[in-house]
Amino acid sequence: MRIFGSFNRAGSLSSVLTRAAASDQITGTSALGGRIAGPGLRRAFSGVMKSAVTDRLTRRQARDPMPADEVIDRNWRVLVARSREMTGENDYGRGYLRLVRQNVVGSTGVRLQAQVRDTNRQSDTGANDAIEAAWARWGKRGNCSMDGRRSFHRLEMAVIQSCARDGEFFGRIHTGRHAGPWGFAVQVIDPLRVPIEVREDYLPGGGFIRHGIEFDAYGRPLFYLVRVGDREPADRVIGGRRLARIPADQMIHVFVEDIEGQKRGLPWTATALWRLQMTAGFEDAALVNARAGAAKGGYLEWEEGYGPEIDSEDLVDEDPLYFDAEAGVVQELTPGLRYKDANPTYPSGEFSTFLKAMLRGAASGLGVAYNNFAGDLEGVNFSSIRQGTLEEREYWKELQEWLIESFHQQVYERWLPWSLLSGRVTLENGQPLPAAKLDKFSAATWLPRRWAWIDPVKDVQAQLEARRGGLISTQQLIREAGRDPETVYREIAEDVRQMEAAGVPPEMIQAMFIKNVQAAVKPGAQTEGGENGEE
């Protein structure tokens, strides 16, 4: 018999009982059916699940696991409120949002790469260019958002920022005449408009409502209950709230699921909020104390036998004694009055050490490198910052893939049918792509932002060696740089055509694509400038 499925190397259960019995500290009759509660057996099993011990040191830790719905009910509103405050007022909180925006979305956003192929499995360049061009036109400001103020790049920013700050993003797809010039637009919805308190356990057909979302019996979202204004049509009124019942196929709900069965997102800053709040208070107190210590300040005291009586009524009416210190001026005091310096010594050497420790903990919970989060490169060498940067970039890549799957692909799969049916996707000759071939035109990949090499010479050389060794393709190298291989090839071909048209010698053109430029130029080659190119 084994306890908890396994036992340690010290031996079997019987050997443990034997050793414990030898100490005459076991009470009871049977290891299986009797009562064995002596201290010897307790010591024998001590340490097997030490983390489950409940005593005066651990009594504040959780003892009963909470399901996802209860975690959301208890914590969502408070965490969102504190996260919004922290990312709006705290420098480190605002810096974290900036890091997320810059590294997940970047300056150019996530780019579409259509992957349409013809019957011969060759790239259909015309269709790919038409789809990418139509997507780019729709993504301009004024077309893709209901308010007309955002481009698709700004929508991407709104999604990732809302998820980092509030834990989730809600958007609604609108189609028709009211949905902007394209007839297809995304409306950004504040998560607070989907009331977390609305809950119904039993609906006809076995469905239920949790956190403002109506599900079927299997947990698939059917409708979202969104709070509307007094002049907007409402489908339900619950607790004085006027709610619109929006079909799930019109909604986009983006969040990271931390617990199985979770139906609403929690702020990504959740675990760091308390530490950042305490750190902010610590900094404020240290700053005030440092300013007081830097300024000339002190106390005025009466010597024995001088000054007003303690119980005198004049103390109430008299103004407090004070004087302004001025550089180079010695103040003459009233007889019996003396000055005592007030020079607070805090903060001293421990301030920086403590602050770094707190920010390291917060950065770890947020998934970012401490040096980037705190803006602190003191004492950093190349190896350590390279390792930290590479690990952080893997986290950004993970978020990029999640964002593409949760937002970009969802929007694209709804945008493409509408655009094909409305004749918005056209070839260079003006002919629209047929909507009947939707499955063929749906093939697409996405190119998120990538980063510059940490050590460009060594990193690029390693990639080229891997390509020469057959471990990686040229297209993959280009994609890892955040570019579209077909676009790069066409640009290279255009470069070559323009250089040939300008009269650049073929040897020089070839030299640009091989390792050794000097080896590509034949000795004694004549150019228009004279021998060996010299005038």
Automatic annotation (TrEMBL):
Record-linked Pfam families = Phage_portal_2 (PF05136)
Matching InterPro entries: Phage_lambda_portal, Rhodanese-like_dom
User: Which protein are we looking at?
Assistant: Phage portal protein, lambda family
A GO molecular function term, named singly, is: structural molecule activity
GO terms, biological process = virion assembly
Q: Which domain of life is it from?
A: Bacteria
Instruction: Show where the Rhodanese domain sits.
Output: 270-311
Q: Which organism is it from?
A: Paracoccus homiensis
